[in-house]
TrEMBL record:
Family membership noted in the UniProt record: Belongs to the UPF0065 (bug) family.
PANTHER family tied to this protein: BLR1237 PROTEIN (PTHR42928:SF5), TRICARBOXYLATE-BINDING PROTEIN (PTHR42928)
Keywords of the record: Receptor, Signal
Domain of life: Bacteria
Signal peptide: 1-25
InterPro entries with a match to the protein in the record: BUG (IPR005064), Bug_dom1 (IPR042100)
Name assigned to this protein: Tripartite-type tricarboxylate transporter, receptor component TctC
Length: 327
């Protein structure tokens, strides 16, 4: 993760409110509802972000914003759907690191290539993983976790939201950095993993913080660390993986807004401006942080493309060493 993309606030997202002449020349965009695909089941983090931003997006764009859940194959089904749509700006995807970086190595064949199949609009935010244990666990911090992993190779189990998920690979990344061996147990979602941790049949979990925010706040899940380089204002007592002494184990499940390759520059600018205004609404960043999402910034679509390319390269060796295969 390139830390310059993670900010405590997002003034760098601010864009001029005056549209360039090229956008005005198009005139009609948008003149009908805009559909944003979430390539995961309803109720996830990307859903939450779209729902928070939609009222402002609709006001700025003057058209309804429709959320369309298209889950399947680790987010690749919905992402592939958008890659095959017309590049007119009316069909977009808010995808995360799974289908946009990890899948490029995880799946032997994909109906899209993240380096050539999309027009990137902007980085919207990033969700760190949480390392969680049950409240009465003797493991109270990451130093204890490391000691336990070293004392009992492959006896310390961790759950994630599935094979090839960011949580799965974040645990692998940490184990690689520390020279330890954890036992990965995949689930169909973070909720199932949490139930097994709380029930005592699983030692720990590595999964997106937002999926366990209520449990962490309520004290039913002990958060040992989050995998970002900075603390979250909404979880000020949870240390970062960097503070715990593992700077190489940062892992952010970032969210990127994209459309099919070939989106007109003016359309990209118009959508980017609308999202920027929505994110910078008073109090919005705090509401997004409540979902476990940190603001991110970029300097434009080309910077987003370069970021995605770096993330593909970063995760590729971790995917290969994990032995993960599509389920």
């Amino acid at each position: 993760m390139n830390r310059r993309h993670l900010l405590a606030s997002a003034p760098a997202l601010a864009l001029p409110l005056l549209l360039p002449a090229g956008v005005l020349a198009q005139g009609a965009f948008p003149n009908r509802p805009i559909r944003i695909v979430s390539p995961f089941s309803a109720g996830g983090t990307s859903d939450g972000v779209v729902r928070l931003l939609s009222p402002t997006l609709e006001r700025v764009l003057g058209q309804p914003v429709v959320l369309d859940n298209r889950p399947g194959a680790g987010g690749t089904v919905g992402t592939a759907h958008i890659a095959a749509e017309r590049p007119d700006g009316y069909s977009l995807v808010l995808a995360n690191a799974g289908p946009m970086a990890i899948a490029q190595t995880l799946f032997p064949t994909l109906p899209y290539d993240v380096r050539r199949s999309f027009s990137y609009v902007m980085l919207v935010g990033g969700a760190p993983m949480v390392v969680g244990v049950r409240p009465n666990s003797p493991i109270r911090n990451m130093a204890d976790y490391l000691a336990a992993a070293r004392a009992r190779p492959e006896a310390i189990s961790y759950g994630s939201a599935g094979i090839g998920s960011v949580g799965h690979l974040a645990g692998m990344l940490w184990a690689s950095e520390t020279g330890t061996q954890l036992l990965h147990v995949p689930f169909r979602g973070g909720g199932e993993a949490e139930q097994q941790v709380l029930g005592g049949s699983l030692e720990s979990l590595w999964n997106t913080l937002g999926a366990h925010a209520g449990s962490v706040r309520g004290g039913t899940l002990r958060a040992l660390a989050i995998t970002s380089g900075e603390r979250m204002s909404t979880f000020p007592d949870v240390p970062t993986i960097v503070e715990a002494g593992f700077p190489g184990a940062t892992a952010i499940n970032w969210f990127v807004l994209a459309g099919p390759v070939g989106l007109p520059e003016g359309v990209v600018t118009r959508v980017r401006e609308a999202f920027t205004i929505a994110i910078n609404e008073p109090g919005m960043k705090d509401r997004i942080a409540g979902l476990g999402v940190l603001p991110m910034s970029d300097s434009g679509p080309a910077d987003v493309q370069a970021f995605v390319n770096r993330e593909v390269a970063r995760w590729a060796p971790i995917v290969r060493s994990s032995g993960a295969t599509p389920s």
